[in-house]
Amino acid sequence: MKISYDKKIDAFSIVLNEGRISKDVEISENVFAGFDRSGQILEVQFLEISKTGRPWLTLEAAAKYLDKSERTLMRWIKAGKVKPKKVGRQYRIDPKDLEKFAS
Question: Whole-model pTM?
Fold first, then answer.
């Protein structure tokens, strides 16, 4: 898994699995998920990112990105290793805060 930002096309990408994308699905305005032929998600792209601000990941998405459980991520939050924002009852995590944990 890797996170990247392309200034030229102003896109933020999270590559979850390597492979060839055969189908893109718009899941929100300027947010696309790329799938392979078997339906496995390979990549999530955020377009025109400088206009929309930084994307924040849910606890579930952050745990999946790190290949850890949500419970482990919650322990890191409580220990102060990850500093999320709270939106209502849910946590939102800046992907940049997760880079040090990504392998």
Answer: 0.50
Strand arrangement, sheet containing 57-58: 57-58, 90-93, 85-87
3-class SS letters over the chain? CEEEEECCCCEEEEECCCCCCCEEEEEECCEEEEECCCCCEEEEEEECHHHHCCCCEEHHHHHHHHCCCHHHHHHHHHHCCCCCEEECCEEEECHHHHCCCCC
In this predicted model, what pLDDT tens digit does every residue of 29-86 receive, in sequence order? 788 999 999 999 999 998 887 776 567 888 888 888 888 999 999 999 999 999 998 8
Q: Which residue has the tokens 């790190």?
A: 66
